[in-house]
């Protein structure tokens, strides 16, 4: 009798995902069975859950282990990204309770949704099969659609949820279609198998099915990382979504998009490197420039940060275009730094904001620097880091991204990148101008920070400065985590 | 390294001071001022051993002394080190910085009443950035300090400045940042050309780059420095920044920050890219001369004293650049001296403008007249500083300007020197005319009739500067002597490399180390043909 070859199932590889899913489900139950209006305790439980998961993730640092017949892998690349996701989720959870109380949409489902989204991101980073990546992406996206529209009483939040859902579904279609075409051309959805097939049949590299498949996959991921010209959903969704969700979306899912994007492009399509290198060049320039130029004219700080996050995706694409180890390590480092500095900036916005997010314009920040010097100084550090000024994490990150491009000979791309950086200075400085150089227009009332938000700010500002002054260890880890 | 890390101590003392200030109550202005004052005085005192310990003829690695070298970031392709050191060129700029800072802080005692705490913190952080810029041997470290310097100055102009302060602050920041970001790109590509290792300029100096690469990198570096200097036509941020900045800000901006630009040429742009530097000499000399003449003419028609002094800065720095690009001993020495002199004289001028502004809250020349009768002490000091700025013999300005002109006459920049000389006359015209309109004549304006003369604090601010004006004017010998080996090294480095580069075929990219070995180069004047190989 013929035996069926059982694929090697190694549950240890997906232990963190299982763990976090279980924790999220437990939290859902806790939310139902433990009554009460104040759901902040769920946030603290989530933090514990995330920390436990992080411990389990870190435990996997070391040689790569593949599982489920090569569908999921536990390698340093995935581990590094998973840590970024967990940090983003943790920081977002920390700023949620204050916001939810203020907006009176204090529902406990928020936390499990963030955790489930994190599981999705982790699968995206660990997936070595297109289907697993797609599963992760869908798990992430569905959670995010709900999270974006989480503030049911706010029209903007509703609109954000719907808009994100429609455009997200659209982009998912592109991605899935691309995967299907690639499958058609190569007969497999496994990244390794695709690569091996193309090695064995070089003619497939010119097969329209295969090339169009790659282009559609790239398009789908470009949607997810909000690269121009597929960025249109970003500003409305970012502005409309509840601020902690926006903070989360701008850091975690974007990093997840890059994780999957990098893995698929580099491993499945290495032979088309020249082609997608060109493609990324154009994407990077467009993304940086569009993001920065439109951000220049924004009055709403959340919207400004949304456009600036498009620009930041552009900087990361500069590192990706370089297609070398420095570039990939640069992206890892930058995504980590971005999680701290961007969520940190959003945390301050949560503190400044009033009900209905009525306090979100840059003009409302007038005189803030003298009313709340400490908080303003912290926001200044985040903004200067986003602008890429030393000695902050943002500077080191950009330094590595641009130097990777220069090393690969994309010197013009680096020059366009730094000029974009200079343009971005203007809108980041504009916030500083209002905070420090204008007199307040009205009395500033402030509800104060909760311990959770304070903890988030402390961690974020500490990390932003530490990664700027002594980035050595983290850079080394990023270097060890890259796939090249 | 068994000696005391003196340079680190000097850099970080102000930082410690700034951190201390965080814990002082924001309303106890007296304490805030005293702490800041004490910290800067201590920093100055700490920097004095640099002078006594500096051993001019004996040169350490690449002529640098007080070396500190600790690995800092080593990840991926890059190795950055915390590498510090000073030579005869940076020594005096560090001293100038630590010397100006207590004076600047003393000048704020009555000028700034609002947000004193933040102001003092900004001043101290600025000192960290400026000192760090002058002592960094590692280019990456240099870049970080160079950028860090911008932030406190941006806040100083933007928060405590005049009416148009926000415009001036943003313009200042974006102008300088654009230049330095391009320098960053050039810096990284320079690093890859050097084939890894670390960011030490000692290594980069030994590279022999091909002319095209040199040209592009020189352009990027020179642009960053030209904006900071500022050279015509990139100078437009300066009058705005100067006019809007509070007195201490103007003093520091003029005395120290502009020197970062000229220092950049001496330390990086010229020795790193000697061929390109030579190729662009006519352009730079032309821009310098235009700067001298144009800024002098513009200064002449200014109604605002501070703006006039700001434009005079542009003209003075034109002289510095001309001297540096004469690339002979007299010219470079003159340029270096002029950097210090401009720091002292223009710093003093801005303080003087600050004194009358504090009294009258106007800087319009037409609002004054006849102040000499009312304020004799002030008038005397103002006059000395004016003379020093014009470059009257006996004052510091004369020595520097004379050497610059002498040097450029002897170099291929002769005709530029001829035109620049008329700038000396123009500077006498606008300075004396301004002095006359402010100080002499009848005391018409009734508001001016009750003006008080300088008080003890203000005299104390001015005295050290006046002392330096005469000291440097009469006996600049010690300073010139200690600079000489470093200046000779710079000239030799820039020229020898150039010579070799012309002889060596472009196919041989790497020179034998002996040709450019920096420390062993001829002491005193290099017996190299000074005018021939520069086109």
From TrEMBL, chain A:
<feature type="transmembrane region" description="Helical">
    <location>
        <begin position="374"/>
        <end position="397"/>
    </location>
</feature>
<feature type="transmembrane region" description="Helical">
    <location>
        <begin position="409"/>
        <end position="429"/>
    </location>
</feature>
<dbReference type="GO" id="GO:0012505">
    <property type="term" value="C:endomembrane system"/>
</dbReference>
<feature type="transmembrane region" description="Helical">
    <location>
        <begin position="77"/>
        <end position="96"/>
    </location>
</feature>
<comment type="function">
    <text>NDH-1 shuttles electrons from NADH, via FMN and iron-sulfur (Fe-S) centers, to quinones in the respiratory chain. The immediate electron acceptor for the enzyme in this species is believed to be ubiquinone. Couples the redox reaction to proton translocation (for every two electrons transferred, four hydrogen ions are translocated across the cytoplasmic membrane), and thus conserves the redox energy in a proton gradient.</text>
</comment>
<feature type="transmembrane region" description="Helical">
    <location>
        <begin position="205"/>
        <end position="223"/>
    </location>
</feature>
<dbReference type="InterPro" id="IPR010096">
    <property type="entry name" value="NADH-Q_OxRdtase_suN/2"/>
</dbReference>
<dbReference type="Pfam" id="PF00361">
    <property type="entry name" value="Proton_antipo_M"/>
</dbReference>
<dbReference type="GO" id="GO:0008137">
    <property type="term" value="F:NADH dehydrogenase (ubiquinone) activity"/>
</dbReference>
<feature type="transmembrane region" description="Helical">
    <location>
        <begin position="12"/>
        <end position="34"/>
    </location>
</feature>
<keyword id="KW-1003">Cell membrane</keyword>
<keyword id="KW-1133">Transmembrane helix</keyword>
<dbReference type="GO" id="GO:0042773">
    <property type="term" value="P:ATP synthesis coupled electron transport"/>
</dbReference>
<keyword id="KW-0812">Transmembrane</keyword>
<keyword id="KW-0813">Transport</keyword>
<keyword id="KW-0472">Membrane</keyword>
<comment type="similarity">
    <text>Belongs to the complex I subunit 2 family.</text>
</comment>
<keyword id="KW-0830">Ubiquinone</keyword>
<feature type="transmembrane region" description="Helical">
    <location>
        <begin position="331"/>
        <end position="353"/>
    </location>
</feature>
<feature type="transmembrane region" description="Helical">
    <location>
        <begin position="278"/>
        <end position="297"/>
    </location>
</feature>
<feature type="transmembrane region" description="Helical">
    <location>
        <begin position="255"/>
        <end position="272"/>
    </location>
</feature>
<keyword id="KW-1278">Translocase</keyword>
Automatic annotation (TrEMBL), chain B:
<dbReference type="GO" id="GO:0042773">
    <property type="term" value="P:ATP synthesis coupled electron transport"/>
</dbReference>
<dbReference type="GO" id="GO:0012505">
    <property type="term" value="C:endomembrane system"/>
</dbReference>
<feature type="transmembrane region" description="Helical">
    <location>
        <begin position="214"/>
        <end position="234"/>
    </location>
</feature>
<feature type="transmembrane region" description="Helical">
    <location>
        <begin position="143"/>
        <end position="160"/>
    </location>
</feature>
<feature type="transmembrane region" description="Helical">
    <location>
        <begin position="456"/>
        <end position="475"/>
    </location>
</feature>
<keyword id="KW-1278">Translocase</keyword>
<dbReference type="Pfam" id="PF01059">
    <property type="entry name" value="Oxidored_q5_N"/>
</dbReference>
<dbReference type="GO" id="GO:0048039">
    <property type="term" value="F:ubiquinone binding"/>
</dbReference>
<feature type="transmembrane region" description="Helical">
    <location>
        <begin position="246"/>
        <end position="266"/>
    </location>
</feature>
<feature type="transmembrane region" description="Helical">
    <location>
        <begin position="339"/>
        <end position="357"/>
    </location>
</feature>
<feature type="domain" description="NADH:quinone oxidoreductase/Mrp antiporter transmembrane">
    <location>
        <begin position="137"/>
        <end position="425"/>
    </location>
</feature>
<dbReference type="GO" id="GO:0008137">
    <property type="term" value="F:NADH dehydrogenase (ubiquinone) activity"/>
</dbReference>
<keyword id="KW-0830">Ubiquinone</keyword>
<feature type="transmembrane region" description="Helical">
    <location>
        <begin position="377"/>
        <end position="395"/>
    </location>
</feature>
<feature type="transmembrane region" description="Helical">
    <location>
        <begin position="278"/>
        <end position="301"/>
    </location>
</feature>
<feature type="transmembrane region" description="Helical">
    <location>
        <begin position="119"/>
        <end position="137"/>
    </location>
</feature>
<keyword id="KW-0520">NAD</keyword>
<feature type="domain" description="NADH:ubiquinone oxidoreductase chain 4 N-terminal">
    <location>
        <begin position="79"/>
        <end position="128"/>
    </location>
</feature>
<feature type="transmembrane region" description="Helical">
    <location>
        <begin position="6"/>
        <end position="24"/>
    </location>
</feature>
<feature type="transmembrane region" description="Helical">
    <location>
        <begin position="172"/>
        <end position="194"/>
    </location>
</feature>
<dbReference type="InterPro" id="IPR003918">
    <property type="entry name" value="NADH_UbQ_OxRdtase"/>
</dbReference>
<keyword id="KW-0472">Membrane</keyword>
